[in-house]
């Protein structure tokens, strides 16, 4: 049983919810991140190490006396990774390869890694996408995630590591900032709270798999406590179009806004939905929060933040 | 039609044969490599640039006024890449990503890349291995090759590049030095020429796909002149065991030696043979040299070298 976990990237949007879920499960938590959370004060139960996980010395210190590692840090996002792939490779791939070497040296045998179901497959040949779908990413972000998965697999084959790779879809929920297409729900709600106009690229038929961030945190904790290893899609398992999101946002906010429709962007995959049967069977987990409930919860949180900011 | 080609790694074992085949096809050749060929004087028809392809300035200079690039350089070999994966990523992956950026900037639209059919697939789930076989490498070498393939694919999707990726099996032939398991034929012949004993790891039933290096060079030239793009296995398409090699070497050399059998090595994949139907159909190419003929040619060359060295 895991007693103490290092969460790399634990002050980020998803990481902060993983920390909450670990604490709720009675696990001691240390966080390694570059800066404190944006929307909360530091939690008294958590041991924070502020530093860069690509710095081997800070990583070594952060790994001291932990039983397991939850790695959900990324120095890049999908939409910008192609601008500087070398920085993507250096900041994420090389840093994670160094992490794997340290885990072996320090005899830490459990790792959960947050990969990306939205980018490692590229343009889906079929939907929903299963884990054995070919990997033809069209972003450096996806290529690097795919390469990291392979180094993890190799370490499992050649060493004693037991790892779970979770290919996340698009998480949304409280503490999500303005993060472009991947975080369209957060972006829409923040814009509405500020009285700004919403934009839709294309005709709104682009479909994504949106997962409420607490469901995402739950699968991370389940993976950490499981003796299963391998690669698992982690999404809602259902697709929603941008137009569906607009409808859910209207219902949650009570605002009858009209978005502005812009030209479609050539790099948006038209439709991707993850098949999550493997994760359900392995972890006894399932997403519990509907899109409408999740958007409503997110709206409550955005309103509270908007009020606090005056 | 290609008029001038830059061969990156053109002084290596495989590269030197690609240069020969390009010259025979009437193509102008520039070579970028770190040092001259080991076994030959520089060729008067070839323009040599000596330098490191991971140096962007030397690469820029080498790319000036060429129509196409044949990239067959590697700073690592499969058996040692796991010792320092970070050096593997830096020397090969990052350098090749920089190459792709330069190709785009300099409007060079044709690339042939030598990948590795022996490592990108990992332990085969079936034989012969087709190009759509899952990729689960167990060496950094294979992971880096796989990631390079993905960056090439992405560049084709997002830019104007037309690329052929050739997943080579185990080339052998004249100018092969002592290169361990991947180069077992060269190693055996050199040892025999020096009167040394041959070693077999395990019982000699390990099977590989050995391709005569001139057949390998021919497919590279065919790929360069083709308007096809994509990923292609490049091997003999048939398997030979280490015991088969021992037999062919006995027949070629007329020496009735007995190898020493050592313990099997845990990291040797038991059997891998490439399916080469896709390359045959796309390029009108086929391997022409049988294992026995190739080993005999290689032995003649080793003998000539051994005599020259006195």
From TrEMBL, chains A, B:
One Pfam family hit: Epimerase
Ranges for domain NAD-dependent epimerase/dehydratase: 5-235
InterPro entries in the record: Epimerase_deHydtase, NAD(P)-bd_dom_sf
Membership in a protein family: Belongs to the NAD(P)-dependent epimerase/dehydratase family.
Extent of the signal sequence: none
UniProt pathway: Carbohydrate metabolism; galactose metabolism
This protein's name: UDP-glucose 4-epimerase
């Amino acid at each position: 049983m895991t007693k103490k976990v290092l969460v790399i990237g634990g002050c980020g949007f998803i990481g902060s919810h993983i920390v909450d879920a670990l604490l709720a499960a009675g696990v001691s938590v240390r966080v390694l991140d570059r800066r404190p959370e944006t929307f909360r004060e530091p939690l008294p139960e958590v041991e924070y190490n502020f530093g860069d996980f690509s710095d081997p010395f800070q990583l070594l210190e952060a790994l001291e006396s932990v039983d397991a590692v939850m790695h959900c840090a990324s120095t890049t996002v999908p939409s910008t990774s192609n601008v500087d792939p070398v920085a993507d490779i250096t900041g994420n791939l090389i840093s994670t390869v160094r992490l794997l070497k340290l885990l072996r040296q320090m005899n830490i045998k459990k790792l959960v890694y947050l990969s990306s179901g939205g980018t490692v497959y590229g343009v889906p040949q079929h939907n929903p996408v299963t884990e054995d779908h070919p990997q033809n990413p069209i972003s450096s972000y996806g290529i690097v995630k795919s390469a990291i998965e392979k180094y993890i697999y190799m370490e499992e084959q050649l060493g004693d590591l037991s790892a779970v790779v979770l290919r996340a879809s698009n998480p949304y929920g409280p503490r999500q900032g303005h993060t472009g297409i991947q975080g369209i729900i957060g972006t829409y709600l923040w814009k509405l709270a500020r009285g700004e106009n919403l934009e839709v690229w294309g005709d709104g038929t682009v479909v994504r798999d949106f997962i409420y961030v607490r469901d995402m945190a739950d699968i991370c904790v389940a993976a950490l406590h499981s003796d299963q290893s391998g690669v698992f899609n982690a999404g809602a398992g259902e697709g929603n179009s941008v137009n569906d999101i607009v409808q859910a946002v209207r219902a949650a906010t009570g605002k009858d806004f009209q978005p502005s429709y812009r030209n479609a962007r050539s790099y948006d995959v038209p439709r991707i939905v993850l098949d999550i049967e493997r994760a359900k069977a392995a972890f006894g987990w399932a997403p519990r929060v509907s899109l409408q409930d999740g958007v409503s919860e997110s709206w409550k949180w955005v309103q509270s933040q908007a009020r606090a900011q005056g």
